[in-house]
Automatic annotation (TrEMBL):
One of its GO terms (molecular function) is helicase activity. The keyword Glycoprotein does not apply. The lineage of its organism: Bacteria, Bacillati, Bacillota, Bacilli, Lactobacillales. PROSITE patterns: UVRD_HELICASE_ATP_BIND. This is DNA 3'-5' helicase.
Length: 670
């Protein structure tokens, strides 16, 4: 049934877009704040269309463009699909845009990188001095011992072991090291860092003609000595360079008089600073320039995002109270979770649905049974807190189990699982994992009869103009034959087979240059470097990784790229559901999450008590609230929340939950 919008709401919605259009006409920067499901993407799209209609010709004549920054590549593609390719519009993720903009400014980039190296040197020296003093060691003796090649072999081949099994072979190798152990982690850090000092010094002494800063979008960390930078440093360098440089501010303002930033709440503060410096320049010089931020501060779920827009009072604030996605009942529940008086309402007059249901259970709920009982079998998302549960449901639990044992994803680095392994924003996925994903993508395309030739050639080193029909068809046939059972083959085996058929593909996917004889060893060393943070040739673990079946990697690929998104039942983490929408949503909550034993309980227990929370506690409360808000607001028709907690009898807790959800059921069988 077609839902109906009242005339008053229709007019109000048009007026909101008109407020945005006025800002664009008058070059008044604005912040468009709207709740979940309000249609922010739609408004962004309309704003771009509006400028193109009225000012498109002017822009073309002046060689100017509209710049639109999206949070993910998926959001970028979505917007490009809606608007179509248009030479007056640049739609880009922030890193892609900034690198295009700044990469020609090599002199300033090199200067920034040198400063970063000097900072690192100073930090390492301080760390070393403290360590030497604490253990009464002589600097020269210590440095000579730890730079010895044999020592480094012992050090790295035992690196991932626990304290005692690590210490024993090191001390057996040279009893000198007996004096160095207070904390094993500290020792490891000092050895690793001090051994970098020489390469830092060499990098500083290089002739300027020999140096070029490169941005590697697949890496999550810098290699400062090689002048290779990753995401964070790109933002940092750009901020420093643009803030200090009027000419670049002018270039930005003159080239892009209209800048839109989508999902401002999860945008890095450095990006806002860069745009603000351009805005200030334009205002001082009376230049026509407008920036529009689109977002919702309560949907801030990533730590590096600003949350609230800094200096919001300097922008025209435009708000949209309507929700175009969900039923009245769901809007009421998500409004209570927000609890900030935002008061969102449905744009439709007749958008009634079922009441949202909340289930309390002391045990783990059998989700399959639950879905069957509620006849949830199409367009249904199950949102789970724990990575382990998601990986199990999506069929890549073995992959998770193996990588969880590596230094990159264990102990204090467990958080990397969310940012580098399960992150749907592919630019943040760990660099080695991105290479693996490219390999999986290549195999999937080879077996897909609907793949275009262009897509296939994309992964090979041959160019479309040189490859012959015969060559291409022989090549596809060979891979299809050799990898016919790839689903059950080990990843390492699949890579080796493709390498035998045509090693240029493997070299291209894994960035291996022609000087390397054995691509497979190179890939194994890359895995070691990535997962163990080390250069070396330790392979015991690597065998385990490369023995994992291809199918596990394919399931992981499907999860990252959201294949088959709306058919049947799909599983996501609560974080991963951002930006999506489904007819039915089942959210499963637990207390043991994010190194807390009361992760969700903290939110529900304090729901009516937030005034007494100090700043730190308020921040903790808000983190859970935002995540719950994002997850529950994905539902269009039906929302079910299951809370697995031992505290299901706590009357204050239950009372607070009842303040949010109209139906709260205890589904304990005992
Ligand atoms: N003006 C409009 N006309 C028709 N449908 C719309 C309009 N605006 C939004 N919608 C639809 O409403 C739903 C929500 O819109 P959208 O996803 O753009 O909201 P959002 O504000 O970006 O949501 P969220 O922040 O929760 O991800 C989508 O299904 C979208 O297609």
């Amino acid at each position: 049934m077609k839902k109906e919008i009242t005339e008053a709401n229709r007019i109000e919605e048009l007026e909101i877009q008109e407020q945005i259009n006025n800002c664009l006409d008058e070059f008044r920067s604005f912040c468009f704040d709207a709740g979940a499901g309000a249609g922010k993407t739609y408004a962004l799209h309309k704003s771009i269309e509006y400028i193109l209609q009225g000012k498109g010709k002017n822009l073309r004549n002046r060689n100017q463009k509209i710049l639109c920054i999206t949070y993910t590549n998926a959001a970028k593609e979505e917007l490009i699909n809606r608007i179509g390719h248009n030479s007056e519009v640049v739609i880009s993720t922030i890193h892609e845009f900034l690198w295009n903009f700044i990469s020609v400014q090599q002199r300033m980039l090199v200067e920034q990188n040198k400063k970063a190296i000097e900072n690192e040197q100073a930090k390492i020296k301080e760390l070393e001095d403290k360590f030497l003093k604490k253990h009464s060691l002589d600097k020269n003796v210590f440095e000579e011992k730890i730079s010895n090649e044999q020592f480094l072999n012992v050090f790295y081949s035992n690196y991932s072991k626990k304290a005692t099994p690590f210490k024993t072979p090191v001390i057996n190798y040279d009893v000198f090291f007996d004096k160095c152990f207070g904390s094993v982690d500290e020792f490891k850090k000092v050895v690793r860092s001090v051994n970098k000092l020489d390469s830092y010094q060499e990098a500083l002494e290089k002739h300027p003609n020999e140096i070029k800063v490169e941005y590697n979008p697949t890496r999550n960390r810098d290699d400062l000595a090689k002048y290779i930078i990753s995401h964070d440093s790109l933002l940092e360098y750009c901020k420093n360079i643009i803030e200090e440089n009027n000419i670049l501010q002018r270039l930005l303002v003159n080239s892009y008089p209209y800048i839109f930033i989508d999902e401002y709440q999860d945008t890095d503060k450095k990006v806002i600073d860069i745009i603000s410096s351009a805005k200030e320049y334009a205002s001082n010089k009376n230049k026509k320039f407008v920036v529009g931020y689109f977002g919702d501060s309560l949907q801030n779920i990533y730590e590096n995002g600003v949350g609230n827009l800094p200096k919001k009072d300097k922008y025209t604030l435009i708000r949209k109270k309507f929700n175009r996605r969900s039923t009245h009942q769901i809007i009421s529940v998500i409004g209570k979770i927000r609890n900030d008086g935002f008061n969102q309402k449905s744009i439709y007059k007749d958008n009634n649905g079922d009441l949202c249901r909340f289930y309390l259970s002391s045990n783990e709920v059998d989700l399959e049974k639950f879905l069957k009982q509620h006849r949830l079998n199409v367009n249904t998302a199950c949102l789970l807190l724990k990575n382990k549960d998601i990986c199990e449901k999506r069929g890549f639990e073995k992959l998770l189990a193996v990588i969880s044992e590596t230094p990159r994803f264990s102990g204090g680095n467990r958080g990397n699982l969310n940012s580098e392994f399960l992150q749907k924003n592919e630019q943040y996925i760990g660099w080695f994992f991105r290479e693996i994903l490219s390999f999986i993508k290549f195999i999937i395309r080879i077996f897909d009869d609907n793949s275009t030739v262009n897509k296939l050639i994309d992964s090979t080193s041959k160019s479309t103009s040189h490859i012959t029909f015969n060559e291409l068809s022989r090549f596809i046939k060979a891979i299809r034959h050799e990898l016919a059972n790839c689903e059950t083959m080990a990843l390492g085996n699949c890579i080796e087979k493709v390498n035998k058929i045509d090693s240029s593909i493997i070299r291209k996917i894994f960035f291996i240059d022609h000087k390397v004889d054995d691509p497979m060893s190179f890939i194994k060393n890359s895995a070691f470097e990535y997962l163990y943070f080390q250069n070396g040739e330790y392979s015991e673990f690597l065998d385990k990784f490369f023995e994992i079946k291809f199918n596990q990697f394919k399931n992981w690929y499907d999860y990252i790229y959201d294949e088959n998104i709306h058919t049947g039942i799909s599983y996501y983490t609560l974080h991963g559901s951002k930006g999506l929408e489904f007819e039915n949503v089942v959210v499963v909550l637990q207390d043991d999450f994010a190194r807390k034993k009361d992760y969700c309980r903290y939110f529900f227990s304090n729901f009516n008590n937030t005034r007494s929370l100090n700043n730190k506690d308020q921040k903790r409360f808000n983190q859970v609230r935002n995540l719950l808000y994002v997850a529950c607001s994905r539902a269009k028709e039906h929302l079910y929340v299951i809370y697995e907690t031992q505290n299901y009898k706590d009357s204050n807790l239950v009372k607070n939950i009842k303040d949010i959800f109209p139906i709260v059921e205890d589904i304990n069988t005992n």
